[in-house]
């Protein structure tokens, strides 16, 4: 059953839901939560499919909030779906203009009473979820950094404003990795001296994995860039050798510990509906994720400080080199100028003295043809020293 409402309001949508349930012969509700999905027109289809698939495991009232603030006209259109592939209810709320700027006022009357509320942002989300109007309505707040333009930056920004009941699907994607690594550490207890995560450059999951390992093992974890896709390996260094978990094809991983043969283990990449279904199984706070988020923030601050230090050192070094070069150039220029102005004068004095004392008549007067050369003769020592490019006198 599908009911379409144009230019409506929350009260009319709520009344239509009650009427539709009665007409379907199921006035009682078997739903366990309200799931709010906040998205835009571009990511609506994929988010709706993932949420509908997850609702098969968790019957719920699914509120798909599709906002568009670019249009000048303000309004609300709604679609109500009952009994179509899912046991719960699906309400698509398309908000325009000023209504889209206040989605919480539309959503609030449609929440199921006495049941948990979960909010999910498949794409861009506010940095502080608990202060967002939609986030303030929810017991659990879920984001997905991989759905943003800057996954690492988005994850770090929200980690800096982490609040109770918040998580990111980046963390959920790491669950199989974390389970295998935890089992490896339990089976092979040792003192770890270093660790490394290998992944495609700019992968948010790699940064979060490194933060979790650093938090759990107490050692600094390096992130090494590979061709990917995603995370391709994790290595934990001990005195006896490395514990490694590597995955190249997205299906199977190779697991190795010192002194034992290598083994293949299942490590499949999961779809978004599986990830969101996993997160809907718990309504309590994830303390391990919270701790990893705090470490992620510290790692980010360390990286920025190191980058700023390197940049400052490079600038100082360059400036110092330029200053030295400038001083050397000035010194060279001064030497050249001194040579060009002093030595020709001595030559002129010597030439004049010789001409005066050694005239052919022996009279002590200079010959007219041997006196200082006139303009245009081209024979003056001063003219040569000053006009020749880069000329210096050499003794």
UniProtKB/TrEMBL annotation:
Residues 164-292 form the Glucose-6-phosphate dehydrogenase assembly protein OpcA C-terminal domain. It holds the Pfam family OpcA_G6PD_C. InterPro entries: G6PDH_assembly_OpcA, OpcA_G6PD_C, OpcA_G6PD_N. Residues 53-159 form the Glucose-6-phosphate dehydrogenase assembly protein OpcA N-terminal domain. Coiled coil: none annotated. Residues 301-395 are annotated as: Disordered. Residues 350-360 have a biased composition (Polar residues). Residues 301-310 have a biased composition (Basic and acidic residues). Residues 311-341 have a biased composition (Low complexity). PANTHER family: OXPP CYCLE PROTEIN OPCA-RELATED. This is Glucose-6-phosphate dehydrogenase assembly protein OpcA.
